[in-house]
Amino acid sequence: MQAHGDRAAAPHVSIILPVYNAELWLDECLESVLQQDFEGSMELSVFNDASKDKSMTIIEKWKVKLENSGVLVVIGGHDSPSPRGVGYSKNQAIAQSSGSYLCFLDSDDVMMPQRVRLQLEAAAQHPTSIVGCQVRRDPPNSTERYTRWINQLAPDQLLTQVFTSNGPTVIMPTWFCSRAWFSYVGPFDEGGQGEPEDLLFFYSHLRKGGGVIRVDQSLLLYRYHPNAATHSVLETTIWTHRVRFLEERALPHWATFTIWNAGRQGRRLYRSLTAGMRRKVVAFCDVDENKIRKGFYCHEDSQERPKPRVPILHFRAARPPFVICVKLDLTGGAFEDNLRSLHLQEGRDFLHFS
Q: Closest Cα partner for 221 from 166, 147, 145, 155?
């Protein structure tokens, strides 16, 4: 970092750091801010969400080190009995910051030295995009399938795979964007614990025509541990948001479609759809001979008379477009081989939902 003499000038990049009881990781996290090789002006905006541990002591210690190296540090927070949540903390950290670009960082993660520099280069070229990056997981063997998905999505899949249970196709702790674009899309939902504020922001971003870019270098050590805020969001909450987004963004473009998976997940999706969208489902498809032999799925809870009976076909007999409710990377490549054999185009002929 070069020290910048003119303190009155707004910094070019603000690192946005919400903190809640992060004493275990803060030293490494803040060291990684100090180690950035970006030579422009940079500030760290920390918002402490009622931490009860030694987080503030650690932050105050690093404020001196960072400011001595030319990084402006802005600290806000509150000491209420309970935290207000990640969405609130991020909004507050952004509001008190002044950089032209926002670099999001979680207090338990560690940035590689080139992160700010490389993501800024990408964000400057794509002013209406969220820019992410590849990650290294810690511990290395945790969430292997999810980590592969994060790191290996093709550029067009960053937009076609936005409906899966994995959530945003570039993960929130890697986000980098212009302040102007954030202000146009935001702020984060402040519903508190249990609300997927990153997913809701990501959906708003896509609705407003935003792009999704990934810098194909591993620029973040992404920690997995039981206390992570991610674990506080109910799967049913995320499911409901995902189904509504699928109905809003994808299904209107199709006159009819087939649900690929006649098992639990496929039937659950069918039952979760609005009545109008259910009527577009012409079939389920599968490879399970028992399900195919049964011939149909009857929606017993339907108010319609007669109750809808949806055919169950072998996937080769079914017609696209497909909404695929089969988890990727779980069948030793068998499902992926079947899908490839149909020579379909992702986004046009099929979408992944699981």
A: 147
Q: φ, ψ for residue 165 (rounded to 5)?
A: -70, -10
Which position has the higher pLDDT, 194 or 67?
67
3-state secondary structure of 135: strand
How far is Cα 268 from Cα 273, in angstroms, rounded to an integer? 9
Reported CATH class of domain 236-352: alpha beta
Axis crossing angle, helix 86-95 with helix 197-207, rounded to the nearest 10: 60
Place of tokens 């068998």: 334
CA angle 126, 186, 239 (to 5 degrees): 100
**Would you state the structure tokens that stand for residue 338, as one six-digit string?**
């079947």
Q: Is the pLDDT of residue 152 over 50?
A: yes
pTM, two decimals, is: 0.94
Instruction: Tell me the CATH architecture of domain 12-233.
Output: Alpha-Beta Complex (3.90)
Give 121-138 pLDDT, tens digit per residue. Answer: 999 999 999 999 999 999
Domain boundaries, the chain: 12-233, 236-352
Q: What is the mean pLDDT of the chain?
A: 94
